[in-house]
Write a structure and sequence with these properties.
250 residues; alpha+beta; 4-stranded antiparallel beta sheet; globular
Length: 250
């Protein structure tokens, strides 16, 4: 751990050209010394489904993308609602409600958020790293109305999908992305207007990991998307810059 801290400190005062490498170190540090230990402890205490565990959940793009988004320069703070929704989306729990314990997912989301905030408060280095990314821990609210979360995840798939995909939205951009999703009682795409969500998105640049999911279809300005790729923790429409990894194909 000491070597990791020393390496991080060395990068803090480096100039802008190596900012990407510095950001990478922050993410690795946060996951290795905070996220993974919490998940290991919780893995046997929170059984959320009978077909996967939390160790798997925290390797999925939906959850990894959300947590890494918190670690980057922006005004986003993790909250229990987003964590619960991301977990449900990460394992397609809406298709397996009889095999999934939504209450335990919400319970874990509160537990995880509380543990993360405690660790950040006790880790001065991490506080400094987050502060450099515009995060003020003093205004980070970890309380969230449980009834509101239950309403989102239990009332309808539409509300669940809306909550998830709206978190990617950039309303000021003119590009419109339509996400076609399964209906309330089916697990396939039928392209009915009521089974779609339209958001504004900056599709010319990197998109937070977890946007392109199997089981969903996408139109960009009323034209069908052909493929999407992942490159260094970000997602790109069609071709990404460099040695991309295809993650979604029509």
């Amino acid at each position: 751990m000491i070597n990791a801290i020393i390496d991080t400190l060395k990068l803090l005062n480096k100039p802008y050209p190596i900012q990407k490498e510095r950001n990478k170190i922050v993410i690795i540090y946060f996951w290795k010394f905070h996220i993974i230990p919490i998940v290991k402890i919780a893995n046997s205490k929170f059984i959320i489904t009978d077909y996967c565990d939390l160790s798997h959940v925290f390797t999925t793009p939906s959850v990894c993308g959300l947590i890494n988004h918190f670690l980057r320069t922006n005004k986003y703070y993790l909250n229990a609602k987003d964590i619960a929704v991301a977990i449900i989306m990460s394992v397609s729990a809406y298709c397996n409600k009889s095999r999934t314990d939504y209450n335990r997912i919400i319970d874990f989301s509160y537990y995880f958020l509380t543990e993360i905030k405690i660790r950040v408060q006790e880790d001065k280095l991490l506080q400094d790293l987050l502060s450099a990314r515009g995060k003020d821990i003093k205004i980070w609210e970890t309380e969230y109305d449980r009834l509101e979360i239950e309403e989102i995840v239990n009332s309808s798939r539409k509300k669940l999908f809306e909550s998830y995909f709206r978190s990617f939205e950039h309303k000021n951009f003119s590009t419109k992305v339509k996400i076609w999703h399964p209906g309330e009682t089916t697990n396939w795409i039928d392209w009915k207007p009521e089974n779609s969500i339209e958001i504004g998105l900056n599709t010319s640049f990197a998109i937070r990991e977890g946007f392109f999911l199997l089981g969903f279809d996408y139109d960009i300005n009323n034209r069908g998307l052909s493929s999407a790729s992942n490159y260094k923790g970000y997602e790109y429409i069609n071709e990404s810059p460099g040695r991309e990894r295809p993650i979604w194909l029509r």
